[in-house]
Amino acid sequence: MSTNNPEKLSILVLHGPNLNMLGVREPTIYGSATLESINDLLNDKAAALSCVLSIIQSNQEGVLVDAIQSALSQHQGILINAGAYTHTSVAIRDALSAVKIPTVEVHLSNIYQREEFRHHSYIAPVAIGQISGFGANSYLLGLEGLYHHLSTS
Ligand code: DQA
Predict the structure, then answer these.
(1) Which of its termini does the chain have fewer beta carbons within 10 Å around, N or C?
(2) pTM for this entry
């Protein structure tokens, strides 16, 4: 349970590289919502579900690995959009395997309708599930699925 509030599930939300550019970045692929507005939607959903979120965005792989390691004994679940690291990072996958915290992987775009190099995810095999292709809503669906998993297991 969360060290801040023992009654509420605590979930770490990780946004990987270039997601700080949402709103400006390829809006035909990623939509026009900014990361800040997605975080606001996530916090509203978390309040409705009665869980708490810690949200981190980083363009650096090691910062994401450190955040996953630090989640141990602080957070019960991880919601992650690792951006391009999804398709390259053995280090992020190994960190998730090490902490064994239930993780849901999300993507704004449908990675399977895009270039072939985006079809493979290093994270998917160590996640409880993946949501891809629903724009900003992928995050909200992912949070709901993760919350449901944590509160029923
Ligand atoms: C992404 C898909 C990745 O392939 C890409 O590198 C991203 C964003 C998505 O949310 O659709 O940065 O994770």
Answers:
(1) C
(2) 0.95
